[in-house]
Amino acid sequence: MQVIKRLLYTTCLLMPSMLMAQSTLLPQGHKHQQLMDRLEIRFRDSALSFQHLKPFDRRGWVAALESVDTTALGAVDAFNLQNALMNNQEWVTGSKDGFVSRRPWFNTFYKTRADFALVDEKDFFLSINPVIQQQQSKESDTEDRVFLNSKGLRGRGLIARKIGLDFYLTDNQERPPYFVRQFEDSFRAVPGAGFYKPFKTSAYDYFDARGSVFFGVTKYINVQFGYDKNFIGNGYRSMFLSDFGNNALFLKLNTRIWKLNYQNIFMELTPTNPARSGDQLLDKKYAAMHHLSWQATKWLNVGLFESVIFGRANRFDFTYLNPIIFLRSIEQQNGSPDNANIGFDFKANVAKKFQFYGQVLFDEFKLSEIKGGNGWWANKFGLQLGGKYIDVLGVKNLDIQGEVNVARPFTYTFRDSVASYTHYNQPLAHPRGANFIEFVGVARYQPYPRLHLQAKLIAWKQGIDSAGINFGNNLNSLYITRPRDYGWSIGEGRKFTGVNASLWLGYELLENLFVDASLMLRKVDVPDDARLTRNSSMFTVGLRLNMFRREYDY
User: Fold this and answer.
1) Is residue 289 one of the residues assigned to a domain?
2) pLDDT single digits (tens) 517-543
3) Residues with Cβ within 8 Å of residue 3, at least 6 apart in sequence
4) pLDDT at residue 276 greater than cutoff 60
5) If we measure between CA atoms, which residue out of 416, 384, 418, 388 comes closest to residue 400?
6) 292: Cα within 13 Å, side-chain hemisphere
7) Three-class DSSP category at 285
8) I need a labelling partner for 519 at 20 to 30 A (CA). Which of 9, 55, 60, 481 fits?
């Protein structure tokens, strides 16, 4: 990865005159995602057709918002649109008078309602905001108090509109629900986090530090070098790349021209960490990913995906730096030592009410074995099919989403732990790993501008390891330890079934300041393991400022 850093540094020195206007990106879990989906489906807006590559750029988001005929919107959507412009005001070309605070603090802070500290000059923009989240929960069947205490800062800036930067830093103390602690016990990882330390009894202390620099090489090619999360997909989950796991160091090239968007991501990852000992240099592994999207028609977007995960004694392989060539062909030329995957995705907006989407990922595939029907272990693939429906039955701002996710045993796994589809002991794609089928249903309702409600139901069936036998669900296990070659189907192994249902109510007291209340009901059943079989409920109240909600939905 040092090579990538030096290439980026050299590019910045040699091509300052070629830099074009560059935007920072919308943060993970931003509050306007539902508005983005609604506008794309309703207006079939091609400007938003590539928003499945998350995080989405603020400049493109504002351009799409400013092109919308607000007279065609309802009161809630019109409010959300103006609110989205206020939270991305560096790219707003119209009047900004409505963003000004009536009573700024000491005539210095909160001069605008969305920014604690703001500098907005001709060649320099800077926004700094505090980040706070306090959650207190009561979980049934345990005396341990469940809590989350997060505090920090986030900011973004532009220099001459040619160089962008952003950062996000929080210090977190968390005692999650019991099942999340079980995840940590099994995988030596706190979901979404990297290095962590024990805190009090059965709680964790960790930093979440992210930052990126952005610049445009030409009008059509933008570059991001950062340490953060990425997501590829239109669904609630992703079978390609999700933001479930830890942050990662990456270099991202995004080329958007005509009806095409081509994204290259080169990442430095951490393989399986054998112990949480600290004071040691962890090994590294690497990933290269390509995603090509084509807006085939106003309503249809199709894409191709490929990735390779590899390790080279803590150095990047130069052959994978080529942004154009097929990664699988390079992997074969290298002697097929690495974990290569390919995939296809689509999205169709229909009747200004519906969106249908899907992903197919192939880890390994042999047609003759599929025809044989004997359940060959190496026919490894993942599948997602889903849909969204806005303004259900004519009820304004009531939207629903449903999807099915499937992954066969041993998908994403490899013969060594270095090249598995993981980072810091956590899956790079779906949180469940492999060998599962899952249904996700989400209903979102915003009856008034500042009131948000969400109901969510997640149900799954998975086969998990038993008596030390590898049944292909744990991505950190080597597929060479499988007990047989044939007879594999989804759910093979110990039966692990579960339902996670939740209801959330959020009210925005002030700009980006939410009070939250939620109820989660979780039922899991592993017939031969009383430790895993558990019915529980958890009630949570919280207050958060400029921060996404911490959810436990896996």
Assistant:
1) yes
2) 999 999 999 987 777 788 999 999 999
3) 315, 316, 318, 321
4) no
5) 388
6) 9
7) strand
8) 55
HEC letters along 83-143:
HHHHCCHHHCCCCCHHHECCCCECCCECCECCECEEEECCCEEEEEEEEEEEEEEEECCCC
Amino acid residing at 268? E
Is the bond preceding 55 in cis, omega lying within 30 degrees of 0?
Answer: yes
User: Which residues is 199 bridged to in the sheet?
Assistant: 203
12-18-20 Cα angle (round to 5): 95
User: What range does the domain containing 242 cover?
Assistant: 2-545
Question: Which domain CATH number covers 206?
Answer: 2.40.160.10
State the total domains in the chain.
1
* pLDDT for the residue 19: 60
Long-range (24+ apart) CB contacts under 8 A made by 248-252 are: 248/423, 249/1, 250/224, 250/225, 250/226, 251/4, 251/8, 251/223, 251/224, 251/225, 252/223, 252/224, 252/225, 252/226
Q: What pLDDT shows up at residue 14?
A: 44
Does some domain include residue 552? no
pLDDT at 326 over 80: no
Torsion of CA 35, 38, 41, 47, to 10 degrees: -20
* Residue the block writes with tokens 């939410």: 514
pLDDT value of position 450: 97
8: Cα separation from own chain's centroid = 25
- Nearest residue to 444 (alpha-carbon basis) of 386, 488, 398: 398
Those residues whose C-beta lies under 8 Å from the C-beta of residue 383, and which sit 6 or more positions away, are 239, 358, 359, 360, 361, 404, 405, 406, 407
Residue 553 placed within a domain: no
pLDDT reading at 12 higher than 70: no
Amino acid at 451: L
207 and 255 Cβ atoms separated by less than 8 Å = no
Per DSSP bridges, beta strands 436-448 and 426-427 are unpaired
Closest CA to 40 of 234, 238, 259, 241: 234
Please give the span between the terminal C-alpha atoms of the chain, in angstroms, as a whole number: 32
User: 134, 170 in Cβ contact below 8 A?
Assistant: no
Burial of 13 (0-12, 13-18, 19+ CB in 10 A): exposed
Residue 468 CA to residue 153 CA, distance in Å, equals: 44
Reported pTM = 0.94
Q: What is the mean pLDDT of residues 72-98?
A: 95
φ and ψ at 44, to 5 degrees?
A: 50, 50
| Cα 160 to Cα 342: distance, rounded to the nearest angstrom | 39
Quick check: 552 and 177 in contact, CB under 8 A? yes
Give the tokens for residue 192: 């979404």
CA pseudo-torsion sign 205, 510, 244, 492: positive
CA nearest neighbour of 380 among 363, 367, 366: 363
CB 174 within 8 A of CB 191: no
